[in-house]
Queue: 4 jobs
Job 1
Amino acid sequence: MRAHAVLIPLGVAAMSVVSPSGAAAMYAFTDEAGTVHYSNVPSDPRYHLVIASPPEESSLSIQALLQRAQPYSVMIEQAAQAHHLDPALVRAVIVVESACNPQATSRRGARGLMQLMPDTARQYGVKDLFDPEQNIWAGSHYLRDLADRYRNDLQLMLAAYNAGPQAVDARGGKIPPWRETLDYVPRVLRIYHRLIELGPPS
């Protein structure tokens, strides 16, 4: 069965992910030919909700996480600048990936602040996944490579960071229709735009 993901331009997505109305929810339906259609704008009555919008983090909770990330601020700024990224994006990924815990380990084996898999870490020369400086530098480098690969399409960059570029490429450059990824992309974008609103950490 083929899957067709209906994506929104980045500008529209950026507005939807900061909206409190839940516009980042994902809907789907299967047409007569067996093709699955995904959208966050259910324009066809056949659409049904498959992924609800992730809970919106409050400014207070984000501020608390940013305080935990404060010891790594210089590392984030340096890595983001070196790889031509917005530091707020790197922070948003760290918040979602590890809640700013440098010792975080996922059930799949991803480790550290930016939750790098061991194979990815080796690709970027990381010796210690739990070392914040190495982890942030490699994670930022990986984001930069994904930005180049997907022509700065932020949604695809984040989908590939979460699900792997092979999963995105296998679907013709579409976000994989996986629950975790469909939750991850709008959540990072929501926090990213909230961090832009809050401004650089003091």
Note: The radius of gyration is 17 Å.
Job 2
Amino acid sequence: MTTETKKTHPPQLAEDSRKHLKARARNAYNDQKKEFIDNEQITQFIPMVHKVVQRVVTYIKPPLSYEDLVSAGTVGLIKAARDYDPSHQAEFKTYAYIRIRGAILDELRNFSLLPPNADKQIREATQMNLEMTKQTGKMPTDEQLAGKLQITVDKLYQTFENARTKHFVSIDTSTENSPPLGSSLAAVNTLAPDQQFEQNELIAKLTEAIQQLNERQRQIIILYYQQELTMKQIAEVFDITEPRVSQLHASALFSLSVKLRQWKDGR
């Protein structure tokens, strides 16, 4: 380059060029950091895999072994570490949980988890519950609902547990017009104002519905979801069997789903 050529470059242009190169270098470095979750960090989240699997076996009776579900969840964790991008405003812990749970549910969807008539029984129980609530102004007890359906209370509890299983396995299913719930949770900080309002209203209605549960059901919901106790631990608190806690938990979730459906339908 000649002396004359040097004189034709404004000093500001050279400074801008240096800033541009620095910015590119910094971005490249940050991109490398974003893509890398090391093995030690992955290992730290293995207990989360076990926690998710424990929740799954609480909700349903999977045809796979505990070890099979842990293996599926671990694959989800590794994929989360590979694909994680913090620019999407989700912490890795949140993102990993979503991917772990999704991987386990994907594995379970390959199997038939409900008896053939389960959907029909769930629909009948839901419709009868809605009709009885409309007539009396309050939710029927499990015994009252079973009597109207002309089935035993134990059969009704099995219907409740089938409904719980169906909801748990389908909650992350995506359709063309409806993204998985996990994606919605990951994007919680990017909700539009109207979506945020709707979410807040849903939370308020859910809180109201929980308050209308009977005392034992309400306590179980709080201990399980807020205090994160296991079914076994809750059974010890109330000095009842673990299967009985599962029944009451399934009954409470069924009641909440009916309440939320009433709210949604404007009844």
Note: The two ends are 82 Å apart (CA to CA).
Job 3
Amino acid sequence: MTNLETRAIAPIGPKARHLNRDYPYPEGAQNQLTYFAKIGYLVGLPPPARWPRNADWRDPSEPLEARARAYLEINCGHCHSPSGPANTSALSFDVGTPVDWHLGLCKPPVAAGRGTGDHLFDIVPGHPDDSILTFRMASREPGVMMPEQGRGTVHREGLQLIRDWIAAMPGACSS
């Protein structure tokens, strides 16, 4: 991915906070960061107590909001960030984005065209069916679907997670 302001190229991929969890390796479960350091893929790691960690979006024992935010960051945050190609949308899906207008809460679309599905806001608290975010995640239509490229199917589990998160949000949007 290219930073549109600096033109610096950054690889698209997982961050340390996405890998800081156990993984079932052939020789037994082990923290992925520890394992990558052991096999020489990572060097200079800080002490484990300082390793950042996102929720595992698939783990129902983790808080719903943490799971939804982790899902959005790893699947949408490469583009929807202040330096990503979708920065013109004014949406940021980094896990640290406050739960407000920057995350899409009661935010009208900037330039989504038919991608709005005639919905008024990116996220409508308590109403996933009225939210542009879930509409675009559920679409398979070019020019509407999100992400725009790299998929031909709808990720049903991820969509359901985001629907559940929006449905659990308190509040309302005024039109």
Note: The mean pLDDT is 89.
Job 4
Amino acid sequence: MSSKIIQVKNLTKTYVNDEVETLALRENSFEIERGEFVAIMGPSGSGKSTLMQMLGLLDRPTSGEYFLENKNTEDLNDDELAEIRNTKIGFVFQTFNLLPRTSVYENVELPLLYDKKTSNRNNRAKINEALKSVGMEHRTNYLSNQLSGGEKQRVAIARALVTDPEIIFADEPTGNLDSKSGVQIMQILQKLNDAGKTVILVTHETFTAQHAKRILFVKDGKITADDPVKIRRFAEDGEILK
């Protein structure tokens, strides 16, 4: 099995609105190894979220090639892309995207309901395991609107994990959280990466990006730097652990 889970060649994305073209990504090429923790940084409007949408198969590039696990994604139809998104990829968003007035259990269960290969008999064990991994097993029957912001993001991570995906995409996962909750969420992502998950993080915060092991800097739709990060671990108050 190749160690490269993602290979991107000359990836370009152009949006057309009222005959006006906007170049969001410009001929980006890079690779991501299986098990890496990569942060994508850049100012607002730089193209970092567009890049994550391409990598997460939420949108298609205008030109260029994207190989996921050595498969050219251009050859995949919409149904095949949807299956990969549901089984190989987990998403965590800034706004949590939980269903309101719905239990924690039901929110985490949702991806399993779309997985035709999953037996309902195994759902409870998978859900409980996912919730336990983020320390939310004691909130199973709570409604999502009864949770704090940090708890909602933990549930969102559990939902992303329940299908045992290869890659976790996190788009500004600490953007709506206080600093303590933000560090706790990043520690969970670090733990998942330590367990072998590939984690790709989009952020504009330098402190958050420093939890990763590599940073791609995006400016005006182009990756301008690709730098390793000195591996660090952070306490709950944000202090760097020795």
Note: The longest strand covers residues 4-17.
